[in-house]
Amino acid sequence: MEMSDSKHKPPEILDVRKLIVDNSIELNEERDLDKLIEKIGDAKYVLLGEASHGTHEYYTWRMKISKKLIEKKGFSFIAVEGDWPDCYKLNRYVKNYPDSGDSALDVLHSFNRWPTWMWANWETVALGEWLRAHNDSQSKGHKVGFYGLDVYSLWESFDEVIKYLEEKDPTTRKAALDAFNCFEPYSRGEGQEYARAARMVSLSCEDEVVNLLTKIRRHIPTHNGDPEDIMNVRQNAQVIVNAERYYRAMVTAGPKSWNIRDRHMVHTLENLMEFHGAEAKGIIWEHNTHIGDARATDMADDGTVNVGQIINEEHKPEEVFSVGFGSYQGTVIAGREWGDVMQVMRIPEAVKHSWEYELHKLEAKDRIVFMTESMKEHLGEREFGHRAIGVVYRPQYEHFGNYVPSKIPYRYNAFIYLDETSALHPLHTKPDGNQMPETFPFGV
């Protein structure tokens, strides 16, 4: 620890850094994760964060943790901050369903929603191929799944529902077409046209999509088919309902659309747990702003909730374990505006006395920090600026809006600090240009 000039530092800074050292271990190689796996214990929900959507090391260390959880503790699935229809394609591949693709590269290369780099990257290809190899040695009921939790895939979910019902249930297909036709006057974008129209003329497709979901829930269980295929169509119908709610809410001020989105992700997660049975365990990959408990940040000031908060509120403390991630400097993949061409950007050094700055001052070593009772007692009420980089990033302005005031020991159960990180490796050279709705100041 950097203590040689201690006589020039205020006592509170020395105390913070000593406390962190006393409650952390250095992270140099994969076996150093064993202490983290031990701390996770018998948790059923393990939430693995990231400080950006474009950092190589966040993906690779989450993969290493996930492999250990799957091999040592029997976790059932990985659920990510991605679209359900796209991620279900990778789920089919890793479980070796018929006609599911020749490789994870082929499957992921078809992901074309901006920001494409979030899942269409070589790091996720490696995860997909590892899951496929692991699952090849497992019985049908023990294959590990890969699913998307997000709410954005309105049109893609419509396509999947209509395609399924065309073959399995022509009667219910009429309800799907009625709902689809309600949206048809608006472009197949991200829902902004529908949202604006809903606000200006008070129209709504709510009745049509709720009717569709009701009929699917009533009729689908009678179909003679693959249980996971049935779960897939039910989930796509749920996406349609919540996407309609999300887009109507996004044109209003306040946290309503964010809360709809995160509650949808929790609902999806609970559906996955139910589908995988009483002993199910789930690994969740999302941005820190989703998995770190919102009650320990300024998000709580305006009533914003998130996945981490809801899961912690609904389950026992020993059932939930969240791990935040962050770094001091490096490079990242992002765009300078919505729909912009992806590019490698330089992440500047963290601002003075931020959480990342204090960790950097501990000899600039990678480490795992455990949020023990001692950390909560002595550091729990202190707020640190904690960096959050979204899919839209302007490094020159990051000091003015990319730090979330956080009570770190209450936001996470552990934190993985990586002193310098690098940009991940996208499969596409540029996105397709589709616009994605702004959901939060950090674009996460």
TrEMBL record:
CDD domains hit by this protein: Ere-like (cd14728)
Domain of life: Bacteria
InterPro entries linked to this entry: Emycin_Estase (IPR007815), Hydrolase/PRTase-associated (IPR052036), UCP036794_erythomycin (IPR014622)
Pfam family, one: Erythro_esteras
One GO term of the biological process aspect: response to antibiotic
UniProt-recorded name of the protein: Erythromycin esterase homolog
